[in-house]
C-alpha cells in the first residue's frame, strides 16, 4: 500500500459539489460530503436546509444540475436510475412508514425478502431455509419476534417504523438512508431506535437525518450540519453545538 492510499481511504460515498435548483432556488449549493465505509453519520439542520433533497439525489430520485455522487470509488450514482441504485445496495427509509397494513409483521418481511413481485404470488411461494433464517434474524434485530403474527396495521407508529427498517434490512443494503425516523415516536421508542440503528451500523453504513437532539446524542456519531444546501459544520455533536454559526441558524431558535 502506498502512503497516499493509507492516508486517504476510499469513501463509501462521496457527494461532490452537488447543486440542485428548483425554479431558480438552490436547494443544494455545491454540497460536498464524504462517508466512510462502515460509518454512521447524523445530518441535522433547519427545515429547508436540503437534507431530504440530498437523499433524493443519492437515491436517484432527483438529478442534480451539477456535481456527482460517487459510491464505492468510481460508480457515479447521478448517471443511474432509482432501481439501479437500490440494486447497488443503497436502501432508503422515508419519513412516513409504508408497511402493508393488512398483512402480518412476518408476511411484510416475506414480501420484502422475496423482492418486488405481486403479494399473493409471493406469499404462496416457499421461502428457502436461508430466507426463513434471515427473517428470524431480522425479527430479533428489530425486536418484533413476539409481534410476528400481528397485523402491521395494528402496530404502534414506532413499531411500524421498526418493521419498515426490518423490511429494508431484508434487501441487505450496504448503505441505509433514514429520514427523520423518530418523528412522532415516544421517548422510549426514540431510545430504542437509537439502539437499533447502532446495532445495524455494526454491519452497515448509515446516514440518518434527525431533529431530535437527544436521539442524535444517543447515536454518538459524527454530525454534519446542513444550511442553505451546504455543509455549515461537521464534527462531534459537542463541537458543532458549540459553533456560533450553528447556534445562530439552528440550535438557538
Ligand atoms: P429539509 O429536508 O432539510 O427540510 P428539503 O430538502 O426538503 O429540506 O428542501 C430544501 C428546499 O428545497 C426547501 O426550500 C424546499 O421547499 C425546496 N424543495 C424541495 N423539494 C422541492 C421540489 N420538488 N420542488 C420545489 N422545491 C422543492
Ligand atoms: Mg426533510
Concise description?
With 253 residues, the protein is of the alpha/beta class. It is built from eleven helices and ten strands. The N terminus is likely disordered.
Order of neighbouring strands in the sheet with most strands: 6-7-8-3-9-10
Amount of beta strand: 15-25%
- What gyration radius follows from the Cα positions, in whole Å? 19 Å
Given the helix and strand composition, which structural class is it? alpha/beta
Major beta sheet summary: 6 strands, mixed
* Ligands present: adenosine-5'-diphosphate, magnesium ion
Enumerate how many helices there are, as a single number.
11
Identify low-pLDDT runs: 1-5
Could you estimate the helical fraction of the residues in percent? 25-40%
Shape: globular
Task: Say how many strands there are.
Answer: 10
Question: Termini separation (Å)?
Answer: 48 Å
Order of helices and strands: HEEEHEEHEHHHHEHEHEEHH
Determine the mean pLDDT.
92
Question: What are the SSEs and their pairings?
Answer:
Layout (H helix, E strand, L loop, with lengths): L2 H5 L5 E10 L2 E11 L4 E5 L6 H8 L7 E6 L3 E2 L5 H6 L2 E4 L11 H10 L4 H6 L4 H13 L15 H13 L5 E5 L7 H14 L4 E5 L3 H7 L3 E5 L2 E6 L1 H5 L2 H8 L2
Parallel strand pairs: 3-8, 3-9, 6-7, 7-8
Antiparallel strand pairs: 1-2, 1-4, 4-5, 9-10
Helix pairs in contact: 4-6, 4-7, 8-9
Description of the molecule:
By secondary structure, the chain is of the alpha/beta class. 38% of the residues lie in helices and 23% in strands. The chain is built from eleven helices and ten strands. The strands form two sheets. A six-stranded mixed sheet has the order 6-7-8-3-9-10, with helices on both faces. It has a four-stranded antiparallel sheet with strand order 2-1-4-5, with helices on one face. Helix 4 packs across helix 6 and helix 4 (105-114) runs parallel beside helix 7. It is globular. The model is unreliable at 1-5 (pLDDT under 50). Bound molecules: adenosine-5'-diphosphate and magnesium ion. Adenosine-5'-diphosphate binds next to helix 2.
Amino acid at each position: 500500500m502506498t502512503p497516499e492510499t493509507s492516508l486517504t481511504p476510499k469513501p463509501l460515498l462521496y457527494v461532490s459539489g452537488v447543486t440542485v435548483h428548483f425554479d431558480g432556488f438552490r436547494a443544494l449549493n455545491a454540497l460536498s460530503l464524504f462517508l466512510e465505509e462502515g460509518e454512521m453519520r447524523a445530518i441535522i439542520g433547519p427545515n429547508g436546509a436540503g437534507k431530504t433533497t440530498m437523499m433524493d439525489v443519492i437515491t436517484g430520485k432527483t438529478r442534480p444540475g451539477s456535481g456527482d455522487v460517487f459510491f464505492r470509488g468510481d460508480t457515479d450514482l447521478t448517471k443511474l436510475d432509482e432501481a439501479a441504485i437500490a440494486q447497488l445496495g443503497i436502501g432508503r427509509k422515508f419519513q412516513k412508514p409504508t408497511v402493508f397494513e393488512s398483512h402480518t409483521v412476518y408476511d411484510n418481511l416475506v414480501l420484502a425478502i422475496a423482492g418486488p413481485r405481486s403479494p399473493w404470488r409471493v406469499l404462496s411461494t416457499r421461502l428457502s431455509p436461508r430466507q426463513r433464517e434471515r427473517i428470524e434474524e431480522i425479527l430479533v434485530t428489530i425486536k418484533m419476534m413476539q409481534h410476528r403474527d400481528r397485523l402491521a396495521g395494528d402496530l404502534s407508529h414506532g413499531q411500524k417504523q421498526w418493521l419498515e427498517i426490518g423490511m429494508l434490512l431484508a434487501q441487505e443494503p450496504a448503505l441505509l438512508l433514514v429520514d427523520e425516523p423518530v418523528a412522532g415516536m415516544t421517548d422510549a421508542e426514540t431510545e430504542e431506535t437509537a439502539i437499533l440503528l447502532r446495532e445495524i451500523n455494526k454491519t452497515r453504513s448509515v446516514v440518518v437525518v434527525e431533529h431530535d437532539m437527544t436521539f442524535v446524542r444517543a447515536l454518538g456519531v459524527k454530525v454534519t450540519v446542513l444550511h442553505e444546501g451546504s455543509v455549515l459544520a461537521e464534527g462531534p455533536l459537542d463541537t458543532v453545538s458549540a459553533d456560533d454559526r450553528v447556534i445562530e441558524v439552528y440550535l438557538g431558535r
